């Protein structure tokens, strides 16, 4: 040990090879005798540079990490909504057909009768929702039923996805049929969907959709006094149906989407 | 508290009663669930996985009473479940499949990407992580299923026939994984391969006819068998001896 220590700047220059030969020799001679200076050279900034260089070159040699997605809020919504069941294709096809029918009616009312659109368009989201979950149509039903986000949460996400596609088609259909104000076509859409969810907590969702769609067909094919327009325009009636169904869904939420196969 | 307790469980499908008054206690470790076909192994798994509501019974999972909605949610976050038969969305990649369940199990988002890859790595599927599920073989599908079950580092892991479809080498690797998982979690493995039990389980439970007819160490099950019992190994002889004994006792 000596009382003298090499200046930190000189030490750094030595470590990076930036000293003239003569100076380097004398620093080396000192390092031979002084443990304190040897230690400080080890933790010098140049070491960090070396580590970083190693990390970069090592990172280049590792296998590529694959398509890892950052876990953002958007990613969560995309995953939860986008994870579609197998029945999606069939349902999207029927939405497309309804769109075509709507276009047909717009061309001429003799090609497509208006009541046909009223029969199909509001029932589509109900059927689509029921097909999107449940032991019969969702291959992952059993696995999802045991997770905290399974059940009502995931069913509502899927309902939202279905309504996003089906509701505009229904409004469009309403616009070309002249049965009530087009915007009000949303009421039966939502009403029948929530009704299906409520019934789906008692019986299998696929059957619930059948029952609801069947009842709707009866109502449309045997129209009440005042014609089909009453069906669409009776706002308080639909709000009542929706509210009652929503209460049932809430009370029986542990059964929505968690029915045993 | 990391235990599972079931008290007075009754489960029935319509008129057929599967369990009537079943009691079960599980602590940390790997528990084998043995029993003949139709004994109720899968039903018990589904009840513990909270996928099937029992008619009656007091069930506590990891200290949470599953009758209480918020406790049930807590329990479900710490649960991993692999059913005997499970479907998949064909267009999902393995990584998307496991990620989907990480979200469904409400994992903290910051942990998800790493946890997903770690789970896939632990079942040895990392090289196929970006392949679509429909292109996987049966054994790979089962391993992807195991990966989704362990992605949240569950404290209660339920595996129904996890070794079905695995080749002998994969089965050995899987047993090693089981022993690792059983260090700090309750792991219940149903199987009818008794070798799996000897190799990986710290305790054995045997169900038959809706009753728990044996619970104890694998060694104790082996000791129950005598030379006269049918079976090719000590544990098989013990298994048949216990079943025969349980069936001669009038209910």
From TrEMBL, chain A:
Protein origin, superkingdom: Bacteria
Q: Which residues form the Putative zinc-finger domain?
A: 11-38
Q: Is Repeat included in the keywords of this UniProt record?
A: no
Keywords for this entry?
Membrane, Transcription, Transcription regulation, Transmembrane, Transmembrane helix
So where does this one cross the membrane? 79-103, 115-134, 155-176, 182-199, 206-222, 228-251
Q: Which InterPro entries match?
A: Anti_sigma_zinc_sf (IPR041916), Znf_put (IPR027383)
Which Pfam families would you find in this protein's record?
zf-HC2 (PF13490)
Q: Does the keyword DNA damage apply?
A: no
Q: What is this protein called?
A: Anti-sigma factor
Organism this protein belongs to: Micromonospora inaquosa
UniProtKB/TrEMBL annotation, chain B:
One family from Pfam that matches here is ABC_tran
Stated family: Belongs to the ABC transporter superfamily.
- Segments spanning the bilayer are none
PROSITE patterns (alphabetical): ABC_TRANSPORTER_1, ABC_TRANSPORTER_2
In Swiss-Prot or TrEMBL terms, this protein is called Multidrug ABC transporter ATP-binding protein
The record ties this protein, via InterPro entries, to: AAA+_ATPase (IPR003593), ABC_transporter-like_ATP-bd (IPR003439), ABC_transporter-like_CS (IPR017871), P-loop_NTPase (IPR027417)
Organism, as annotated? Micromonospora inaquosa
Which domain of life does this protein belong to? Bacteria
Q: Which residues form the ABC transporter domain?
A: 4-234
What are the protein's GO molecular function terms?
ATP binding; ATP hydrolysis activity
Q: Which UniProt keywords apply?
A: ATP-binding, Nucleotide-binding, Transport
